[in-house]
Amino acid sequence: MTTPRKLFVKTYGCQMNVYDSERMAEALAGEGYVATHRADDADMVLLNTCHIREKAGEKLYSDLGRLKPLKTANPNLKIAVAGCVAQAEGAEIIARAPHVDLVVGPQAYHRLPQMAARVQAGARVVDTDFPPEDKFDALPRPVLRRAPAAFLTVQEGCDKFCAFCVVPYTRGAEVSRPAARILAEARALVDQGVVDLTLLGQNVNAWHGADGGLAALIDALSAIDGLARIRYTTSHPNDMDAALIAAHGDNPKLMPYLHLPVQSGADRVLKAMNRKHTAAHYLALVARIRAARPDIILSSDFIVGFPGESEAEFQATLDLIEAVRFGAAYSFKYSARPGTPAAEKPTLPEDVLNDRLQRLQALVTRQQVECQQAMVGRRVRVLVEKAGRMPGQVTGKSEYLHAVFLPGDANLIGRIAPVTITEAGRNSLGAVLAD
What angle do CA 402, 254, 317 make, to 5 degrees? Predict the structure, then answer.
């Protein structure tokens, strides 16, 4: 009997990378790999990278440095780098880290079994092509999830070419998976116990795999018996059409939480970013969404200190945040990405970047805390996902994507339980089962 090889996967970045890591592990399972939670116990270490945030390359090379002694101690250990940093810096990774055996971009990971076989035979492999075939067709069916919630990629790539973003260069042009294949994968997940499904895409609301766009796909998914909750991320303001806005009010399975990145509240900065929308357009869009679903919670992304941003333009961003009142937000200092148009522009002083980031984060933190506190006393429905940190406690997510902990045991896991919120922290809520 062949001894299984062990695979350790570390995932950086977004939910799409989490999904990709799962699919890569499934692809390698067919080659005899089983999961391990320890790099020092693995026959292959796979680092699935993200190139969006600051110092992505440095983080990768730091991790590769920590893996080098493992490779020295076990020459049979194979080290693989996948994802967007692999796509952008494939040749450099091999040059700077000779102990890496395999580099694969995000559009080629369906070929991992063949690559792994070549690596086992002693080759070093780099595959950062954009192959013509649909990688999802070549991947095995999703395996059983341990959790009742899952991700499902429906769209990849980006045609927006924001001046700060590498995604169009690392993920390629916008591609939508056909509706029939998405529905088949969703049914398979539901058959395995999934009741909460998050649709993923770099611009997920640009999905055009069938007539009617994302709203029509959500309607078709809603017809699947056993699928109770649908979410989607990440969306672009320019792709929020009337049908999708209406779906937030009309479709009870579409959850009342929306991540809608705006990046800045200043029109000149938005134009320099090539966002192709204005602050007024964004505020009007928020008003339409809230008219359709008044209790919806919104989150967003902000880049602080984009090249040339003045103090008045930064204040315009703070004013937009005050006007919208977000339930959560993700904010970052601008950092140049090689190959993007903004990378050629002079950056602001580091002390200015730090000051603005701290001020913006203080504001969004206050709004997040206020949103959490406003939930106390409300009755919500929590999908219980796992045991809590304390004995006799379980945790899960509300329809508003709040993390909620409550008294309970393993019998609750996988169920959607009505609860009453009794306490609020910055990042989680406490609850008891409702009568």
Answer: 60
